[in-house]
Automatic annotation (TrEMBL):
Enoyl reductase (ER) domain span: 10-325
EC number: 1.6.5.5
Class in the EC hierarchy, top level: oxidoreductase
Organism this protein belongs to: Haloactinomyces albus
Protein name (database record): NADPH2:quinone reductase
Record GO terms (molecular function): quinone reductase (NADPH) activity; zinc ion binding
Keywords: Oxidoreductase
Amino acid sequence: MQGWQLHELGQPKEVLRLDERPDPRPGPGQIVVRVLASPINFPDVLLCRGEYQQKPDLPFTPGVELCGEVVELGAGVTGLSPGERVIGGAVLPHGGFAELAVMDANRAFPAPEALSHAQAASLFIGYQTGWFGLHRRAALQPGETLLVHAAAGGVGSAAIQLGKAAGARVIGVVGGEKKAEVARQLGADVVVDRHSEDFVGVVKEATGGNGADVVYDPVGGETYTRSTKCIAFEGRILIIGFAGGTIPTPGLNHALIKNYSIVGLHWGLYSERDPESVRQAHAELASLAEKGAVRPLVSETLPLDRLAEGVQRVGDGHTVGRVAYARG
């Protein structure tokens, strides 16, 4: 089979190599799937650079999430059959940027029929992160104001849709008019182009000076610092990631004075510590997808031989929504 592999670490366009290699075989409790689609996530970029917390031995194939068709079951696997369409995370070194990938059977979920291969694949990490962040960690309530940073990206677009589905008023922050239009189409009530507007002032004006009840921040750095200027009394700032490249140092005295919470979210821990909650979240997300309340934003699909250029563009911040490899 063909698949993209890393034999060294660096910028994706420089180190990803399309190789011919043996088909993977499933271990106990695993399945092999024919990859139907695999979205590019920012962790894939970090894996290429060697900057992700998970550091597989070289060589390996990135592609942390996918939609696939079951082709082979490992020992002890029950409840799945060849030909089923499933979504979930890949087991590295056999990631989704290849014709075949490996998954843990107990972390493979039915793909919603209402979604295409690329959309279904994109319902996993970004939407699970949004679900756990907004509902379990921040306890977002109907009528509250949700501020979403990087609102036109894969993670942010999911947060907009989930926030609207929860009955919140959503303010999306983006970079550029093209992305602003995307955020509006996703359902954001107020959209801020950070290139021409100060989101702090817009949030204060839109909330009558009260501020945002929940801030969804996958960016970090100055974005986090500025968010503390417009957080509401008893607000919650969700720390999702640091795509901006800088990890902020919170002023805990400021959190004390303004009475807000700084809430971390490492979604992957739920798969280890509370896997049933991940399965329940998938059921909720699949139901929303079947109703049309959420629909992953896939802006572009690429054939396998063009995937590396897409990974680089995601790393450079030049994409909207999800860019995904999809089998033709």
